[in-house]
Design goal:
Helix content is about 30%, strand content about 25%. The chain has 15 helices and 21 strands. It starts with 5 loop residues before the first strand and ends with a helix.
Amino acid sequence: MPETPEQFDVIVLGAGPVGENVVDRAQRGGLSVAVVERELAGGECSYWACVPSKALLRSVDLAGEVSRVPGLTAGPIDADAVLGWRDYMVSGYDDSGQVGWIDSTGATFVRGTGRLAGPRTVEVSTPGGGTRTLRAEHAVVVATGSVPVIPPVPGLAEAEPWTNREVTGMKRVPDRLVVIGGGVVACEMAQAVRGLGASEVTMLVRGGGLLGRVEPFAGEMVAESLRERGVTILMGRNAERVERPEPGGEVTVHLDDGTTLVADEILVAAGRRATTADIGLETIGLDGSGPIRVDDSMRATAVPEGWLYAVGDANGRALLTHMGKYQARLCGDVIAARARGKQDDLPSMRDRADALGAPQVIFTDPQVCAVGRTEAQARADGINVRAVEYEIGNVSGAYLLGDGYKGRAKAVVDQDRRVLVGVTFVGPGTAELLHAATIAVTAGVTLDDLWHAVPSFPTVSEVWLRLLEAYGL
């Protein structure tokens, strides 16, 4: 006889931070929840991305801070100690704590590979070779994240390249590293590996600049910092062929200008794609070739009866952990409200932030912090824009942080509404400035009201006053 499915109100595919937030909110709403995870509960961010990368960067960032303060000298970084700190921060790649938290909520944790097997049904292949069939009364939520893209360069895949997982989990620092890409992972990890002792780090950047999704000056300032630290950046260069004759041996990268690079490891940081290709979407009429299109309540728009939801990287709106967690919170609340026949259209139950522009911090030195639209994006959207900039190093609070502080702030103003639609800060330690900008952009705080938000002296936040003065207030 066919196995009787295990019944739950909600089934969540993926127990990363996004899936965990769905679990939390749905449980709070009184629903029974099963969450399926084939790897580690806690997901990419906890073990192979956000957390370990920042653990690796912290010592490099602090060494930069110390070097700017007269009277202090930063000694050599103990790479082994940093790697040990990384291991501690990822709990030694042991997810028992995360599983324990899920259990404490009352949810059911299911270890295995979950795939849709028709409407509201999930089949899980368990590690022991068995199968569990789960059935959702109200919703299945896809929170399966994303995976790195490996460009179709001859020999690259066969050369066993590093991705974010291998570089954040490295057991030793390679002496020579080639990085393919010029985005966030490429910049952060090039700086980390060089700062932890690599003698050669070379970046191959397809375009003419780094960090193409933020204001151009941000990429220029990061490039300048990387070069000052000894990172070689080859703009407009592409790998045409990669060779690694012996597993674990030297990697030879043939470039499109006829030159070659030889390294111990090659890191591919060329973007990510939603993990939707092998989760059974074809069983419900979707092809799984890309992100799942959703409405602002995170419900899939192409699925009859509205039982499928997708949050985080799986819906392609913003590949950022904090944005996925935000989507997950409102998604869990919406599902609970709909299951209980309660109001499901409260302001907190619809995604507004993605349309305004997600906040992001790039943890290089200098840090890059941005929210909302760039000036170019705002103009392309037809907004009557005026942009102003200010050198953060001229603010007394920044001047006191040490000799040679370099930073810049930019505000993009919708002149018709007199509100900010984009803000960018670049400079050491500017991450803590970003949430004020996020509030201003998200809430539509007018410039006239911001004028009365008085920054403390002497702090770097005084740059807010200088931006408003530059605008003409």
